[in-house]
Amino acid sequence: MKNLRSLFFAALLTLGNSALGQSTMNVPPAATPQTQPVPTIASVIDREISNVEKQILDVADAVPEGKYKFSPESLNIAGADFKGVRTFAAELKHVATSNYFIWSPLTGDKLPEGLKDGNGPENVKTKAEIIQFLKDSFALGHKAAATLRLDNVLQSPEGSKSTRLHLAEFGVAHAFDHYGQLVEYLRMNGIVPPASRGKSE
Q1: Greatest CA separation found in the chain?
Q2: Would you list the domain boundaries of the chain?
Q3: What digits encode the pLDDT tens for the residues 82-121?
Q4: pLDDT tens digit sequence for 128-149
Q5: What is the CATH number of domain 40-195?
Q6: Where are the beta strands (DSSP E) in 8-147?
Q7: Is 43 helix (H, G, I), strand (E, B) or coil?
Q8: How many Å apart are CA 63 and CA 6, to the nearest integer?
Q9: pTM as predicted
Q10: How far apart are CA 194 and CA 55, in angstroms?
Q11: Are 71 and 182 in contact (CB under 8 A)?
Q12: Nearest CA among 91, 57, 99, 70 for reference residue 195
């Protein structure tokens, strides 16, 4: 009788295991969990560059071209000191120009024509030209991020005293610093920054 019970349980276990094996084999491939790629230093920095790039380009697009010459100095706010601050256009050009100065040592790319200081080329004037200048500068940032590896992030590129990692991150930090200023320019003109808009707006 004990042998019969043992055989019965063994048969049940065999059938159960067989059924379990069949049920997992019949699961469609889409239902199996997808493995995420392992993050790298390059991919993490690249994602940060994408984040600030989107924020900057969104505010650049949200402002009408007629407001690109706006500076808080024109508001004549009592007790404020905005004398000589950059216009909205100059802020955007400064971000793009700084991107080139900060990230080009990582890629070895030559600077575009007309980059003498942090104000950008004088011939870049229209909204479309400034936005393209920004896009090109962030493309260089993505190229710079792709150069980062575990064995080189603490090295300094030729002609720089900063590490490759510091330069990559500083480009992001600098752009976000100016993003905060750009948001204030939008608010001063009655424009809600795109990142602050509700789903229905």
Answers
A1: 101
A2: 40-195
A3: 998 999 999 999 999 999 999 999 999 999 988 988 899 9
A4: 999 999 999 999 999 999 999 9
A5: 1.20.120.450
A6: none
A7: helix
A8: 79
A9: 0.79
A10: 8
A11: no
A12: 57
